[in-house]
């Protein structure tokens, strides 16, 4: 079903992604061995990868880093597939870790894809294993390709030590497939066909308005289409989408929420945004502190710097939600956190193994 919230798995249900499927197919013609599939939330990363893998037969392991977060989850998937041998009784954890890296280093012959969805969500030890595998495939690998999928590629690069002094991985080692919004006609067709499947027909003007409102982001179109098919009015569906985005924004660090708010209000250049944020917080912010807040959002692809230097919010629903944030509420959260932890508090991500 087209308006199913689950990722697509069949090519005929994947709208407007021929170019990206072709880009992924270059893995079989020399691209890689380290691949990054990136894009904002709901843009269709998992769908793209699943359709691609579904057409390849059995030459891959797919792990969801948001649920299988530990390094042993990855190792177990490889054990199950027989890619790493079970050393039997007495085999230590460290020897299993090493054997996985060794497999990535030594495996020759037929190509094999190790795919980790939402890779930035893995635990610290999971990320350490990913880094070791990445180094092994780049510097010594043969048949193994590591495909990392992420809605926060900047964060992932940071966790993997990419471009850091003394570390081995570089941005240039990654073959990146970056997903943007769907082409407009594909987005329109997706919504129209999806609704038709459910026996609903909407006037073209309503479909076109929805595609605009949701910036041709497929996950939002599915969200909207389902609600409307269940009897909600388009206006209600819009409101519920903004509420959902607001929930997600509220999980960000308080200062990042405020920054998003001022950018949404139009203070979108560095200096203007910094001043507006200082006004909200009622005190000067160091350049470093401000840079951190910007990075926090950039690494998650929530904002992007445009050519003229202005920052834009990448998801139009987030932009609307950010306007609805109540700065007073965020500020009181900020001061509570400062009193409690003695700092602004960045990501609340738990790095447990
Ligand atoms: N090209 C597409 N054609 C049709 N439906 C799509 C397409 N891309 C995504 N979808 C649908 O949009 C929703 C979100 O897709 P998906 O889960 O693949 O996105 P994602 O980028 O992996 O999201 P997240 O960041 O939440 O993991 C799903 O309902 C999926 O079926
Ligand atoms: Mg996904």
Describe the structure.
The protein is α/β, with parallel strands linked by helices. The chain has three domains: about 15-180, 3-Layer(aba) Sandwich (Rossmann fold), CATH 3.40.50; about 185-230; about 250-340, Orthogonal Bundle (Arc Repressor Mutant, subunit A), CATH 1.10.10. The chain has 15 helices and seven strands. The strands form two sheets. It has a five-stranded parallel sheet with strand order 2-3-4-1-5, sandwiched between helices. Strands 6-7 form a two-stranded antiparallel ribbon. α5 links the parallel β3 (about 110-115) and β4. It starts with 17 loop residues before the first helix and ends in a 12-residue tail after the last helix. Magnesium ion binds near residues 45 and 46.
Question: What is this entry, summarized?
Answer:
By secondary structure, the chain is of the alpha/beta class. The protein contains 15 helices and seven strands.
Secondary structure layout plus pairing:
Blueprint: H1 18-25, E1 34-38, H2 45-54, E2 60-64, H3 71-80, H4 93-106, E3 112-117, H5 124-139, E4 144-150, H6 153-159, E5 174-178, H7 184-197, H8 204-213, H9 218-229, H10 234-249, H11 254-264, H12 270-281, H13 287-298, E6 303-305, E7 311-313, H14 316-324, H15 327-341
Parallel strand pairs: 1-4, 1-5, 2-3, 3-4
Antiparallel strand pairs: 6-7
Helix pairs in contact: 1-2, 3-4, 3-5, 4-5, 7-9, 9-10, 10-14, 11-12, 11-13, 11-14, 11-15
Bound molecules: adenosine-5'-triphosphate and magnesium ion.
Adenosine-5'-triphosphate binds next to helix 2 and helix 9.
């Amino acid at each position: 079903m087209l308006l199913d919230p689950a990722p697509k798995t069949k090519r005929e249900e994947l709208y407007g992604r021929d170019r990206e499927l072709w880009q992924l197919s270059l893995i079989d013609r020399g691209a890689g061995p380290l691949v990054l599939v990136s894009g904002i939330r709901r843009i269709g990363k998992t769908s793209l990868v699943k359709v691609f893998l579904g057409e390849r037969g059995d030459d891959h392991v797919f792990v969801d880093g948001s649920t299988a977060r530990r390094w042993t989850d990855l190792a177990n998937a490889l054990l199950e597939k027989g890619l790493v041998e079970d050393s039997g009784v007495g085999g230590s954890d460290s020897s299993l870790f090493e054997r996985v890296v060794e497999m990535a280093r030594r495996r020759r012959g037929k190509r094999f894809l190790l795919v980790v969805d939402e890779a930035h969500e893995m635990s610290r030890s999971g990320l350490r294993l990913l880094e070791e595998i990445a180094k092994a495939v780049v510097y010594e690998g043969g048949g193994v390709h590591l495909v990392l999928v992420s809605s926060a590629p900047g964060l992932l690069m940071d966790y993997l030590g990419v471009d850091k002094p003394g570390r081995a991985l570089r941005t240039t080692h990654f073959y990146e497939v970056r997903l943007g919004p769907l082409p407009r006609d594909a987005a329109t067709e997706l919504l129209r066909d999806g609704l038709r499947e459910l026996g609903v027909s909407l006037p073209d003007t309503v479909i076109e308005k929805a595609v605009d409102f949701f910036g041709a982001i497929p996950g939002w179109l599915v969200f909207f289409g389902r609600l409307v098919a269940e009897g909600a009015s388009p206006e209600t569906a819009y409101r519920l989408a903004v509420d959902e985005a607001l929930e997600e924004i509220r999980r960000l660090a308080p200062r990042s929420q405020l920054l998003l708010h001022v950018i949404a209000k139009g203070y979108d250049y560095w200096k203007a945004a910094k001043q507006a944020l200082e006004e909200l917080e009622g005190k000067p912010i160091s350049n470093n502190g401000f840079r951190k807040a910007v990075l926090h959002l950039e690494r998650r692809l929530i904002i992007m710097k445009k050519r003229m230097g202005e920052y834009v919010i990448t998801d139009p629903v987030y932009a609307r939600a950010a306007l609805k944030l109540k700065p007073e509420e965020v500020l009181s959260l900020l001061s509570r956190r400062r009193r409690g932890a003695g700092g602004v508090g960045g990501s609340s991500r738990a790095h447990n193994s």
